[in-house]
Design a protein that fits this description.
The protein has 27 helices and 25 strands. The strands form 8 sheets. Strands 17-18-19-20-21-22 form a 6-stranded antiparallel beta sheet. A 5-stranded mixed beta sheet has the order 3-2-1-4-5, with helices on both faces. The longest helix is centred in the first third of the chain and has 25 residues, at about 220-245. It is globular.
Length: about 725
């Protein structure tokens, strides 16, 4: 738990203050740093525990160059280049490396490579702290970040900033003090949090290599698709006006659309809209009116309901709202704002999801792209490239709304260069495999579940997990499972493994176009749990009489600080002295996930009008800046996704040592780009690395599926 990886005397903390001709939030770090007007105007740094130094140009406010840097930082660079015992550190380091590599001009200016830098923000989020420097310092009791920095950045660093150190000398002095303070805050934060082991920094470096490598984009396609998306927003509102006889005139009029639906749907449909039932007194007088809601999750449940019950106009209106209110088509504009010479960079945040260690996305949000695809994907791409207008794209293929078509075509905007090919490998049902494996070899039910995967891996013709689950919950023989019944089995497996109930099942069913009325959903939940007692036991229980599973181990750890509590392949321990009391869960890989400031609390339960209706006791922890509830389902989901993340992170680190350049990845998928002559060998090599496993994954059956693509796609017809 206390592993230290770097001698803090051998760390150079550094931070740039910069300006550019583009906005950082829109353009991303690489486009910002590559802009012709980009410049570093202040560098602050400190070596080890030494004093903070500040470097500006001889004429303050002008750009910095390599030859202006002091000798000690140059000497440190060459030490770090020669030995990994020396390392630079910057908060959100990808930005500062981009600035170093693109603005410190000079004939001998060296590149600051990804594996020469660590990022204290990664260590902070691993400790359960907020991802921003000010928030992390405040939550950890570190040296506070100097406030009011944003006003000086607006004054000196924005594209339209006209102020100079000469015109505003007092503000410039305060800006320099602010810059110095960032080093003190970052260093203090690093020293107050548990250092990450070298293995995790190697995984971080592998992901930063992917950020630096970037992914190619079809700029022409993105530009045409972006124009269509803008048109589709307007046309969707016009279609809504026609469908509703003028009652709804834009996709943003959610209240009007809700009222229109209420007067057209039967009771079952209205129930899906209902947020709060109407209440009457003994005389039949309404004392609290009903409330209705049209959130995304409700729309996703209403769409399969309307499709299955024959309400085409309502279905169409809901689709227009769902896709017209989506931000996904705006990703084309983001691609255009961030591309540099036909590629986008820096799309991943390592450890961005702190309770799992998964990467999160920035920019185009590659990890959040829809997994669905258009069955006529290639024709749609060709039509857009040929200049199809809104009406032509609307008529193409089927009546799917244009914005939905465009949302499903984001993936193909990512392309291989020239005649190169993408080789894509997907882990097969990785979370469904990890869940029973984490139970350990003592759980016979979990072992039987793992054997199903081994049998299918050896012979894909034998009934798979979804088919067997469908048979169990439908009380039919495996041979009698139809395609529709298998879909029910798939939805149940995807929805219920983390302790979810009818709500989770209905939401997952909606994702697959399956409408499940509450009585049917309840029956399926009960049937699945009866068929999988091993999983219910793994979720666990803790009370005065019994304690077992995840919930039992976590609670026993809280009751016995410093004493480890094992459950399956996991270990919990509570350290009350760390960050207001932190519950750690050590994963099979050895990595720990942290629940900071965890304790039982009294929580006010509010009704729809924010009136207190009850007070409950909940186990809660700090999730970034906010308090969040934790229960057995949270614990299960976290450890499964975290273990799957460790497998992916370790795989990316392995690939970083090969000649297979990873361009992008998601939670269960890796994409590399190779010359077309290397495709066959690349498939074999990637497959081998994906399925190899690690010393700590003994007994976990890993399987992957590889495809070759000229562009990124989920289309099964390519």
């Amino acid at each position: 738990m206390s592993a230290r990886t770097f001698n803090t005397h051998n760390i150079c903390w550094f931070d740039f203050e910069t300006r550019s001709g583009v906005d950082l939030q829109d353009a991303g770090a690489m486009r910002y740093a590559c802009d012709r007007d980009a410049a570093a105007i202040i560098l602050t740094y400190a070596i080890g525990h030494g004093p903070v130094q500040i470097v500006t140009a001889p004429v303050p406010g002008q750009l910095l160059s390599w030859h202006l840097l002091p000798l000690d930082i140059a000497q440190f660079y060459y030490r770090a280049e020669a030995s990994r015992d020396y390392v630079f550190a910057a908060f959100n380091a990808g930005f500062d490396r981009a600035i170093w590599n693109n603005t410190l001009r000079g004939p001998h200016a060296p590149q600051l490579f990804h594996d020469m830098v660590i990022d204290p923000s990664v260590q902070a989020t691993a400790a359960g702290l907020p991802p921003d420097l000010a928030g992390a310092c405040k939550a950890s009791g570190s040296t506070a970040k100097v406030e009011n920095g944003s006003e000086y950045i607006k004054l000196f660093c924005m594209p339209d900033s006209a102020a100079t150190p000469q015109s505003h000398p007092w503000e410039w002095k305060l800006f320099c003090q602010y810059a110095i303070g960032d080093i003190d805050a970052m260093r203090s934060l690093f020293l107050r949090t548990r250092q990450l082991p070298i293995q995790e920094w190697q995984e971080y470096w592998a992901m930063e290599a992917i950020n630096d490598r970037g992914i190619g984009v079809d700029v022409k396609f993105a530009r045409k698709a972006d124009r269509l998306a803008r048109t589709a927003k307007t046309r969707g509102s016009l279609e809504l006006r026609e469908l509703t006889d003028g009652q709804v005139t834009t996709v943003g009029q959610v209240k009007n659309l809700t009222n229109w639906l209420r007067h057209r749907l039967p009771p079952e449909g209205i129930e899906l809209l209902t947020k709060r039932e109407e209440e009457e007194d003994e005389d039949g007088e309404i004392i609290r009116p009903a409330k209705y809601s049209l959130t995304r999750s409700r729309i996703e449940k209403l769409i399969p309901y309307c499709r299955s019950t024959g309400h085409p106009s309502e279905l169409r209106a809901l689709e227009i709202r769902l896709y017209g209110g989506s931000t996904t088509p705006a990703k084309y504009a983001k691609i255009l704002a961030q591309e540099v010479d036909g590629a986008i960079y820096g799309q991943y945040v390592f450890n961005g999801a702190p309770q799992t260690g998964r990467a999160s996305s920035r920019g185009v949000q590659i990890q959040n792209l829809a997994r669905a695809f258009l069955p006529y994907e290639h024709d749609a791409i060709e039509a857009i490239l040929a200049g199809a207008d809104y009406d032509e794209l609307a008529r193409l293929g089927d009546d799917t709304p244009v914005l939905r078509k465009l949302a499903l075509l984001i993936r193909p905007a990512f392309v291989a260069a020239g005649t190169n090919q993408f080789v894509v490998s997907d882990f097969s049902q990785i979370e469904a495999r990890v869940l029973p494996w984490l139970c350990g070899p003592q759980s016979e039910g979990a072992l039987r579940r793992l054997q199903i995967f081994r049998d299918v891996d050896a012979n894909p013709k034998v009934p798979d997990l979804y088919t067997r689950t469908a048979a169990d919950i439908s009380a039919v023989a495996v041979a009698e499972v139809t395609k529709m019944l298998r879909q029910r089995g798939k939805v149940a497996e995807l929805a219920l493994g983390f302790g979810g109930g009818t709500g989770a099942l209905a939401a997952m069913g909606a994702n697959y176009g399956l409408y499940l009325p509450h009585p049917e959903a309840l029956e399926l939940v009960q049937a699945w749990r009866q068929a999988n007692p091993w999983c219910v036991r793994f979720w666990g229980r803790h009370d005065a009489d019994t304690s077992y599973g995840l919930w039992g181990a976590a609670n026993r750890a809280l009751e016995q600080p410093g004493v480890t509590q094992k459950i399956g392949r996991l270990t919990y321990v509570y350290m009350p002295q760390i960050l207001d009391g932190t519950l750690y869960c050590q994963l099979p890989s050895g990595r720990c996930i942290a629940y900071r400031g965890i304790r039982y609390e009294k929580v006010k339960e509010l009704d729809e009008d924010d009136n207190v209706v009850d007070i409950s006791t909940q186990l809660r922890f700090w999730k970034g800046h906010n308090r969040a509830k934790i229960w057995h389902g949270t614990l299960c989901e976290n450890v499964v996704q975290a273990t799957a993340a460790d497998i992916l992170r370790g795989t990316l680190a392995r690939l970083d040592k090969t000649d297979l350049p990873v361009r992008l990845h998601s939670h269960d998928e890796v994409l590399v780009e190779v010359d077309e002559d290397r495709v066959e060998s690349a498939v074999d090599m990637l497959r081998g690395i994906m399925r190899e496993g690690f010393p700590w994954t003994d007994g976990l059956p890993l399987m992957s599926e590889e495809t070759v693509q000229p562009y990124y796609s989920k289309w099964e017809g390519k």
